[in-house]
Amino acid sequence: xxxxxxxxxxxxxxxxxxxxxxxxxxxxxxxxxxxxxxxxxxxxxxxxxxxxxxxxxxxxxxxxxxxxxxxxxxxxxxxxxxxxxxxxxxxxxxxxxxxxxxxxxxxxxxxxxxxxxxxxxxxxxxxxxxxxxxxx
Length: 136
Description:
Number of helices: 4
CATH architecture: Roll
Shape: globular
Radius of gyration: 18 Å
Number of strands: 4
Largest sheet: 4 strands, antiparallel
CATH topology: Nuclear Transport Factor 2, Chain: A
Strand order of the largest sheet: 1-2-3-4
CATH class: Alpha Beta
Strand content: 25-35%
Number of domains: 1
């Protein structure tokens, strides 16, 4: 019984370490940029993406929300599978830029890639996405 409890405790600790290691640090420019990319491009959740924006990026999200109003994206929506990787980053104490390359796979369509340039700036104690651009 003691060995079972010890094994269970070890498994719980390992799971906690793995889960906490997978969370991104939203106190960093890169963590905020990647959370924005996940919400905007992977999950197609513009309201969630908007939380990480300021300035021009927020205006762009608001425009996307306006253009897609009445077009629900929910669990029944067929979403593409998107995987991305960081290609380049440039950081300073108050500004940062990240270039990501995304691979998009949709049913009944050929795979294609896009590049997303995500700019971030420090707003008080928090990093926020200040602009983003998509390239072929």
